[in-house]
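User: I'm new to structure prediction. If I give you an amino acid sequence, what do you actually give back? Let's try with this one:
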Amino acid sequence: MAERTGRGKGLYRDCRAQATVNLDGSGQAKAASGSGFLDHMLLALARTANMDLVAQAEDGLWRAQSLGKAIGLALNDALGDRSGICRYGSASVPMDESLADVALDFSGRSYLIISGEFRGERIGDFEVMLIGPFLEALSNSAGLTVHIRFYGENDHHKMECIFKALGLALRQAAAKGGMGIPSTKGVI
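Assistant: Good question. You get back a string of structure tokens that encode the predicted 3D arrangement of the chain. For your 188 residues, that looks like this:
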């Protein structure tokens, strides 16, 4: 069976990004987001999703959104009509004092709910306020409903829990788990 690979190009205002994913990969990632911290999170996402990811964004004010869009489009491309996937996924990931719960559905309908707070404005070179726009762009372009709840003391731990739980939930939802399109309507 052919590997499930996809490509996406994101353009958000003045910033371009591109991404490729292989859902049947081994968790390898190469990221050039312009943020060392976001690159670290993308590596955590790829590793826990067990997908290969190559992502890069041009320097610019909107690079988080354009990168989220590119990755979401690549996921959407790799899934095709979503035939034979499990569709739903959920995961809880602890990291010391922090915990993140992620539940998602490759429904074709994008929706994002995030419940939790960060204490500071930055984690290393990453502005924490950009996590929402990044995830919203990913959700919108992948046709993905995502619910995220998190808590903890350390912002780095909270963010890492989110990305790792997202990766595990993506792996579960994209897993080959049946015949046909997983919808009572026969289309997603």
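You can read the tokens as a compact description of the fold. Here is one thing that stands out. The mean pLDDT is 95.
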